[in-house]
Amino acid sequence: METAREEGFLVDMVVVSDDCALLDSELSIGARGIAGTVFVHKIAGEAAKSGLDFDEVINIARSVASDVKTMGVGLTACTIPAVGKPNFNLGENEVEFGLGIHGEPGIEKRELLTSDETVKLLVDKLNNYVNCENGVAVLVNNLGSTTSMELLVVIRSIVRLLGEYNVNIVRLYSGPIMTSLEMSGISISFLPTDETRLEYLDANTLVQSWPKNIGIANEYTVPTPQKPILEEEGSETDLYLTKETVAVIVQVCNMLKENEEIFTELDRKIGDGDLGINLEKGANAILEVKDSLLQKPVIGIFREIGKILQVAIGGSSGPLLAVLFLRMSSLLKDTSITPGNWAKAFEYGVNGISQLGNSEEGMRTMLDSLYPASRALNEGFEQGKGVKSVLLEASQAAQEGAERSSQIPALRGRSAYLGDRVIGTPDPGAVAMSYIFKEIYSSF
Q1: Rounded alpha-carbon distances, angstroms, from residue 114 to 123, 138, 141, 142
Q2: What is the spatial distance between Cα 151 and Cα 154, in angstroms, rounded to a whole number?
Q3: Which residue in 234, 264, 369, 416 has the fewest CB atoms around it within 10 Å?
Q4: Hey, what's the torsion of the CAs at 254, 259, 264, 267, to 10 degrees?
Q5: What whole-number distance in Å separates Cα of residue 65 and Cα of residue 72?
Q6: What's the CA gap between 324 and 310, in Å, rounded?
Q7: Which residues share a beta bridge with 173?
Q8: Known active-site residue 41
Q9: What is the DSSP string of 335-402?
Q10: CA–CA separation, 321 vs 311, rounded Å?
Q11: Which secondary-structure segment (H or E) carries 248?
């Protein structure tokens, strides 16, 4: 700066010290300039471009530098190439709060927390120093290697928390704006806004890394769909579930929850790894309405279960299992409810899965368990066998079908991309269906 002044340039100094971590510290070095510096650069640059004189630009820059505040957290250290090792060490469940932009350690180490808990610590710190009354511009800065998904989770936490605090987010920016090499972590910057600052922030720039404002809807949460209300059928074929049958349904749901890790791990090997989690969600949703199962007709309950599964279970499994129960409800509505008709209704539902998924038995899907079980049910009841005996045969048929799927090349689903690599691993959906039949038999 002194060299530039000696050469006749008009220069002055603007010091940015937006780091909240050091404002309460007894250290005499003062607060550091970190990601909030970018707000100063953008606004001062646009002010100069608009034609303001030198002193006006300096005053604007100093005003922004005085108002902007930043707080950051690092999950990992960065490694300066010339040094060849991390600048500081963190334990497996430790994070660094209040770190700088040159890879130096922060003000303190803390236990790893959830996104919501971490954001609350950062935001509460910022609120101590920022006047948010007229709204703020928020910068969520990626310190280097934080993934887009992680950054969006943080943004969600910020939006929710500031909503609770009645703070208006007038601008929201996100991205790798001021990084520390490959450090994993984020910083949050708050800048109080007015019309002039917003005008300069919104002005077009040729700087490619300057982020676009992220729009925020007035309502940032999606209301949970209301649980479907059962319709009273009022026909002579009405049949209500017994306490014993409801107990079987509860046992099946609990089994799905207990075996979530088994289904997830199996799906992780050849799919996207979410089957166990999705089945657990469906089970929990059904358990929430278990107390009402004794109060409504069977066909209405099947319709409700179908709608619940469609909403609760993600991916393709939700709609497929939903159509099973909706079709069973549809067929039983027009017929007397007997064991044989139960079997026919189940077959009708399985056919619905086949049609909706454009798949058949032998294509390595849940149908490799469901169709053998369906045949066992129909054949057993046609032969006049008892319910317990028929359920055993259906359970065994479903298990054998699941085991056979391990030798079938995948023709449907995400595992179809793996080719012969799926051989030796049974289809996760078929295994899950076999577990359900085994539980029904054991609990009946």
Answers
A1: 14, 20, 18, 17
A2: 5
A3: 234
A4: -110
A5: 17
A6: 11
A7: 139
A8: no
A9: S---HHHHHHHHHHHHHHHHHHHT--TTSSSTHHHHHHHHHHHHHHHHTT--HHHHHHHHHHHHHHHH
A10: 11
A11: helix 243-258
Q: What is the pLDDT along the chain (444 residues), one digit of tens a residue?
A: 778 888 888 999 999 988 888 776 555 456 788 899 999 999 999 999 999 999 999 999 999 999 999 998 988 887 878 778 877 777 788 888 877 676 666 677 888 899 999 999 999 999 999 998 889 999 999 999 899 999 999 999 999 999 999 999 999 999 999 988 888 889 999 999 999 999 999 999 988 888 888 876 554 454 443 433 333 333 444 566 677 888 888 999 999 999 999 998 888 887 777 889 999 999 999 999 888 877 777 777 888 888 899 888 877 788 899 999 988 888 887 667 788 888 998 999 999 999 888 888 988 899 999 999 999 999 999 999 999 999 999 999 999 999 999 998 776 665 655 667 778 889 999 999 999 999 999 987
| Cα 294 to Cα 312: distance, rounded to the nearest angstrom | 22
Length of the chain: 444
> Letter for the amino acid at 176?
P
Q: How far lies 167's CA from each of 135, 140, 163, 278, in Å?
A: 6, 16, 6, 35
Amino acid in the structure at residue 109: K
State the amino acid at position 238 in one-letter form.
D
Distance CA 185, CA 122 (A): 12
The residues pairing with 108 across neighbouring beta strands, listed in sequence order, are 97
Q: What distance in Å separates the CA atoms of residue 181 and residue 196, rounded to the nearest whole number?
A: 33
Residues whose CB is less than 8 angstroms from the CB of residue 94 and which lie 6 or more positions away in sequence, other chains included: 109, 110, 111, 112
Q: Please check whether residue 119 is in contact with residue 188, taking contact to mean a CB–CB distance below 8 angstroms.
A: yes
Q: Which of 5, 49, 102, 421 is flagged as catalytic?
A: 102
Which residues share a beta bridge with 138?
172, 190
3-state secondary structure of 58: helix
Query: CA torsion, points 319, 310, 325, 388, in degrees to nearest 10?
Result: 100
The residues, any chain, with a CB within 8 Å of residue 155's CB and separated by 6 or more, are 140, 172, 174, 214
> Closest Cα partner for 31 from 82, 111, 98, 92?
98
Question: What tokens does 347 get?
Answer: 């077959």
Instruction: Enter the tokens of residue 40.
Output: 């100063």
CA distances for 98 relative to 35, 71, 75, 391, angstroms: 12, 6, 12, 62
In a 13 Å sphere around the CA of 236, the CA atoms on its Cβ side amount to 2
CA atoms lying within 13 Å on the CB side of residue 138: 26
Report phi then psi at 356, rounded to 5: -65, -40
